[in-house]
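queue> holo job accepted (flavin-adenine dinucleotide)
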Amino acid sequence: MGADIVGELIDYQLRVNGHEHDVAEAWLGENLLYVLRERLGLPGSKNACEQGECGSCSVLMDGKLVCSCMVLAASAVGADIVTVEGLSAGENELSDVQAAFLAEGGVQCGFCTPGFVVSVHDLLEHNPDPTELEVREAVSGNLCRCTGYGRILAAVRAAQETRQE
Amino acid sequence: MTVFVPACLEEAFDAFDKCPDAQLLAGGTDFMVEVNFALRRPPAVVCLRKVEELKGWRLEHAEVVLGAGITYAELMGPQLSDLLPGLAQASRTVGSPQIRNAGTLGGNLGTASPAGDSLPVLAALDARIVVASKKGRRSLGLDELIIGPKRTTLGPGEVIVEVRVPAALGSQEFLKVGTRNAMVIAVANVALVVDWAGQSVRCALGSVGPVVIRARDAEEFISSRIDWARRTLTDEGDVAEFTALVRSAARPIDDHRSTADYRRHAVGVCAQRALGRVLADHNGGTWEQTSWAS
Ligand SMILES: Cc1cc2nc3c(=O)[nH]c(=O)nc-3n(C[C@H](O)[C@H](O)[C@H](O)COP(=O)(O)OP(=O)(O)OC[C@H]3O[C@@H](n4cnc5c(N)ncnc54)[C@H](O)[C@@H]3O)c2cc1C
Ligand code: FES
Ligand code: FES
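queue> job finished
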């Protein structure tokens, strides 16, 4: 039960993208986004607000799409965490959704892209043939300040069509 | 200083024995905002994510018993949206898919924000909230649990365990006004329940007072004017009176999100539309066809 106490700091393990990772001497209040980026060398998830509003830190936790900045990292012990790094087959490969974002011009500065990619993977996993409104609702927790969303919606449509072929 | 992840309530109570000043964490969507912005520095945390008694829901006779750890996404599921349509509608307006996957009913109660979207629905359903600690259990009405903005009567080590509401009670509507359809804290939110069998209307208003307000005068007035056999209003002029009574029940303030005047106006419009939708549903029409419900 719980994590071990090391003085004022705690040690625990997290399972990310199928691998167990040690987190050592961490402050108990650290959020999962911080731990992924600063302690586990997984900077794919981005930090743009740390208040659940922008979705750029989206990850899957036990198969559920959540904002990693809203997860107390030490409470995620035992959970299966998948980050954007875990969605493609290998380090130099793109997932179909990532490829669609590139092909359709859904990436400008790219800061929001990892979050969108995780949200869209989650959407197509549960609903392979979403309507336009369902797509919009599925990405309503992801903000992009560059694209105006048109190219992002086109990318989702393209990924959806490729999967159906 | 530690983080506890108990698997059952008993273990959660034990954690409080070890660390009496530990803080409860559910989905984290309010808690972690405060931690991230250094407004909260928990000396120890009791995570409720794995506590078995707080998960899921069940039917007990004519009551739905919701575990405090139920998420908005779960409340929107097909069965619960039939049994508790008002709560499902409210859940759908909360935050974003990410927030609805994590945020819980118990957390909405624990935060006790005047704008909490589940709260007007629970008030209109006369929900009972069961809280427990090592010392035992108590069952509270919403107004006995939440007594001010972000103020509850929860004692040290006390956990909200479940929420009991009547199953499939009459017709239910929830309406919310904000600046966007997603990711928005309510400027005004309204829940309306029309109990056809009990011949009563209940109307609860959120974001227009320190706590959720039941518009009792408006409820009594409109309940006395509905033709319960035909499920209609005989005099459409009664709607204006109902709306005026709703507005006068509100106790709104000016703040960074809106003005008191606009909030008072908005709860009136929401309550009127909710009533229009409910009555139109029972007369084979759409609410837009009910001339006064626009
Ligand atoms: C981006 C964003 C958008 C949001 N949009 C909305 C919205 O549209 N509508 C809305 O109403 N809210 C909204 N919220 C607020 C929040 O999501 C809800 O209040 C949610 O219900 C909180 O639940 P939680 O499980 O995340 O609680 P937590 O953050 O884990 O906890 C909240 C508080 O409740 C206490 N608590 C939790 N569980 C219990 C329990 N079982 N017993 C006793 N105390 C408990 C905790 O100690 C803490 O003080 C939003 C939040 C964010 C970050
Ligand atoms: S950084 Fe987590 S939602 Fe913005
Ligand atoms: S591409 Fe720049 S924020 Fe979306």
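queue> The domain at 5-86 of chain A is CATH 3.10.20.30 (Ubiquitin-like (UB roll)).
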